[in-house]
Amino acid sequence: MIAVGLGPVPVDARPEHRQRRHEIRLEWGPEGAALLAAKCAVVIVVDVLSFSTAVDIAVGRGAAILPQRRVGRADRAAEEAEARALGVQPAGPRGGTRPSLRPSSLMELPAGTRLALPSPNGATLCAAVAGNGPVLFAGCLRNASAVAAAARAIEGPVGLVSAGERWPGGTLRVAIEDAIGAGAIAAALPAADRSPEAEQAVAQFAAARDRGLADVLAACASRQELIADGYGADVTLAAALDASTAAPRWRDGLLQAG
Questions:
Q1: How many domains does one find in the chain?
Q2: Looking at the domain assignment, is residue 233 inside a domain?
Q3: Pairing state between β 172-173 and 165-166
Q4: From its phi and psi, is residue 14 left (phi > 0), alpha (psi between -120 and 50) or beta?
Q5: Domain limits at 133?
């Protein structure tokens, strides 16, 4: 894959930051992924709009996904060259007619397709965590219960990584849809094992579910950004809680059915 690593655990990560008293833990972004991957048996990357939702739809159709790191649009030629070298179909541009990061573009994806999906958040985190020790899943609202069940079958701490988005300068922007998605998965895991961070995500999920997940996602900043860029139509797919039984898991170099 395009070179990527988790990098060191943040230098200011004191032992108290690791949520070690709890089996179900939650953190945000690359630093959180590094922190959790160092000690958890399972890491679940949650990027509701849109990487994890796209992966769920693809894997549910019998396809497999290569997550690719993306920093900026200039990476596209390198991404496509890497995909072809690995015998994997490169994704098309998000606004085109080929399968892409848009979940709706994958609804007719043929079984057996091997597709490379780059994204700056969910895919980049999956590419970083993959092969670094923990069992990796891609989770979202659509497959929350299925991914939680698969994680429960593995002994050891479970780390939920809310991917978040990026400010123009590249720093992490907390994205409410990823907190809600992580909360939906945590809600299906044992309550007694949740850290306060994971428990707070459960509360956010419960509040959003009571208001209507589709309505909350439709109003959130990330969806407004998608609308501004011309990609706002996929929120209904993303908000479909437990519509899927897929639990996309990193195996043999791809995210695929476990």
A1: 1
A2: yes
A3: antiparallel
A4: beta
A5: 28-256
Residue 4 in any domain: the answer is no
Write the Ramachandran bin of 167: left for phi over 0, alpha for psi from -120 to 50, otherwise beta.
Answer: beta
* Two tokens, residue 109: 């994806």
What tens digit of pLDDT does each residue of 45-89 get? 999 999 999 999 999 999 999 999 875 666 678 888 888 998 999
CATH of the domain at 121: 3.90.1560.10
Query: Is 5 part of any domain?
Result: no
> Cα(45)–Cα(178) distance, rounded to whole angstroms?
9
| 16-23: Cβ within 8 A, 24+ apart | 19/195, 19/197, 21/195, 22/157, 22/193, 22/194, 22/195, 22/198, 23/156, 23/157, 23/158, 23/190, 23/193
The model scores a pTM over 0.85: yes
Count of CB atoms situated within 10 Å of the CB of 129: 28
**Residues 174-219 pLDDT 10s:** 999 999 999 999 999 999 999 999 999 999 999 999 999 999 999 9
Q: Is residue 246 part of a domain?
A: yes
Is-contact 39 156, C-beta < 8 A?
A: no
Q: Measured in whole angstroms, how far is the alpha carbon of residue 94 from the centre of its chain?
A: 17
